[in-house]
Amino acid sequence: PAEPKTSRPPETPGTTPVRDVCQDAKDAYEQARAKYLDGGGNNPGLELTMVSAKKAYCECLRKKYGNKLPPDLDAFCNPKQLKMPSRPPAEPTTVQPSAPAKKTSILIGVVLPTGCHSGDTVTGTVVLNPKDYEGIPALRVVELQVPLENGADGKPTLHGVTIDLGSGHGQPADGPITCTIPKDGSKISVTVGRTDTPQPIARTDVPVIPQPPAASAPHYETPPVCVNNGRPQVIHGPFSGNGSTTNIEVGGRPALVIAETPREVYYSLPGGTAAGDNTVVLHESGKGTSFHVCVVNLGMSADRLNLLRGESTNFTTTVSGLDGLPSSAWLGGTPSDLVDLEWIRRVAPGFQMPRAGQPGVLLLTIENRSPDTITLGKAKGEVIVLTIDRGAVKNGAYEFRGTIQSKKSGGFNIRGTVVPFLAPVEGTPSR
């Protein structure tokens, strides 16, 4: 009788079935993923193995598809999702050759920590919004013009871009980039390349001020307040400097590590982090540490956004989420290394920083960024300077109401900034 149509044709003796080039990497990831989930999903060692296997599988897929992944695979291999134990999506049954993708020259930024010492292992990040990292003393931003392809969402993507920090080995730009500071060198050589281009596409040198080795803090600590403004946050303590082995969660969601040295790690809050009390969990060198922090939001609104000459309007500035800050945290301290103290002295020359042991405060500044168009009531030198102490907080928030007077017709821009002057909190060992 005829064989069923679905049966597989017999294999010719002496031949080997064709095997997908990424099957071994996929199998390794599936095994690491299963072990991680079987271990309860909270074992840092198993998580690191799973993340490394997923990264290797995704690198194989990018080579296989010429850095143009199908949408499902592109989402699966998103660097921000590497720590998620997601099941690999099915691949298309056939891989169609695609025309070379059009590239557009885009300004990127290589973000590196400033506090580098000779012999340090440090980690940085490549970003598509380098201007957002300017003015942060703890970080330096190297800007480079680089041709980028558009991803499935139509936006520029770092897929296919590599960064060599002097080792001679290009690292994928869409993940953490790590290097060791030369013991006798005064610079970090940055070379940008593409996997589809044999020649480098950009080069620059980053000066390094030679400094003696510095000891790490004996324990982990962090500021008790995180301002949710898109800027980095910091944890100080003993680190390896290799940010790819550091895991941070805020409110149970993974945070992005921006930079790391052996003494601190800088990270960004996950999108949509709720204001108020939050738990930050750090996994470093197989050990867990947790912190209770208060995430605060700064909101600004005006009754009218366009004024005619001579008109005025009211505006409101609100700092919310302070109900998550316990009374024990209202102790004075210097701001973190992410804060530009020279800027504070310039915009708030009369402000006195609280000393250790004194009651802590939050500094709130409201700057007039359109001095040719408007004036701010109660401003001195185009800036309103306010201090928020524990007694000024009502129902978990602080509110300031002011007035805007128009000099000429048009829109305007005012900017609010919150800087905590509070003592850091020490982490608690956790699983």
List the SSEs and their pairings.
Layout: H1 23-38, H2 44-64, H3 71-76, E1 103-113, E2 121-127, E3 139-150, E4 156-157, E5 161-164, E6 171-172, E7 177-180, E8 187-194, E9 197-207, E10 221-222, E11 225-227, E12 233-236, E13 247-250, E14 253-254, E15 256-260, E16 264-268, E17 276-284, E18 287-302, E19 312-320, H4 341-347, E20 361-368, E21 374-376, E22 383-388, E23 397-406, E24 414-421, E25 425-426, E26 428-430
Parallel strand pairs: 11-18
Antiparallel strand pairs: 1-2, 1-3, 2-7, 3-4, 5-6, 5-8, 8-9, 10-25, 12-16, 13-14, 13-17, 15-16, 17-18, 18-19, 18-26, 19-23, 20-22, 20-24, 21-23
Helix pairs in contact: 1-2
Q: Please report the number of helical segments.
A: 4
- Sequence of secondary-structure elements: HHHEEEEEEEEEEEEEEEEEEEHEEEEEEE
Structural class comes to: mainly beta
Largest sheet: 9 strands, mixed
Tell me about this structure:
The protein is mainly β and 431 residues long. The protein contains four helices and 26 strands. Strands 11, 13, 14, 17, 18, 19, 21, 23 and 26 form a nine-stranded mixed sheet that branches. The chain has a five-stranded antiparallel sheet with strand order 4-3-1-2-7, with no helix packed on it. A hairpin with a 7-residue loop joins strand 1 and strand 2. Helix 1 runs antiparallel to helix 2. The protein is globular, with a radius of gyration of 26 Å. The chain starts with 22 loop residues before the first helix and ends with a strand. The model is unreliable at 1-17 (pLDDT under 50).
